[in-house]
Amino acid sequence: MRNALVCVALVALLALIADVRRPAAQFAPFTLPAPQTLAPATAPPADKVEQTRTVSHRSGKAHRKREKKHEAVRPPPNQRKVAEKNGYERVSDLVTFPKFFPGLGVIFVKPDTLPLGPFLCFDRRDRLVATVYMVPNKDIDDHKSLEAAGSAGPVDHVSFYFNPGHPGVDVPHYHVVLWHVTKKQEARVAK
Predict the structure, then answer these.
(1) Which residues is 134 bridged to in the sheet?
(2) What is the pLDDT of residue 41?
(3) Would residue 51 count as lying in a domain?
(4) For a designed S-S bond to 173, which of 64, 67, 136, 178 qualifies (C-beta 3.0 to 4.6 A apart)?
(5) Alpha-carbon distance 166 to 173, whole Å?
(6) Nearest Cα to Cα of residue 114 among 138, 130, 132, 140
(7) CA-CA distances (angstroms) from residue 92 to 98, 157, 176?
(8) What is the CA angle 67-69-75, rounded to 5?
(9) CA 170 – CA 187 distance, rounded (Å)
(10) How many domains are contained in the chain?
(11) Global pTM exceeds 0.70
């Protein structure tokens, strides 16, 4: 009799905790939940906070009006000056080369990275338009692995062309030009 009571108690307990629904005909596909963004941990800057104030009208009803404080708009940093602070020098100060080279603009390089570069090309308003790598033919023929610093900005398109040599890189080489502007905006350094 005691065993029968224990069995009934166990069956009752299992019935309470067991999921006895009928199984679905097909399993649902497994999908990952969408990533969730968390609220910022810090308060927004004071110049971006919206203020709410209560405004009374003649009708006696109070309305809330949201006002935005004026935001200070700062221009982006001068990219040429940033490059100079990071050790880049104007190519025309290192070798006999024009200050503005049509097709590439004002060119800067770190002297210790020659001949590969990267060379940073700016338009007349100090805006970065391209990053150039100059790969000597001998290094290509020798199947040499090359490493250089990465691009200084997002790349819109790439140009790849031969150059027989020029001051600074006297050997025949290829220019690999990573353009940070559109083909239409390349005209900023054409003349």
Answers:
(1) 175
(2) 47
(3) no
(4) 136
(5) 10
(6) 132
(7) 6, 26, 20
(8) 140
(9) 27
(10) 1
(11) no
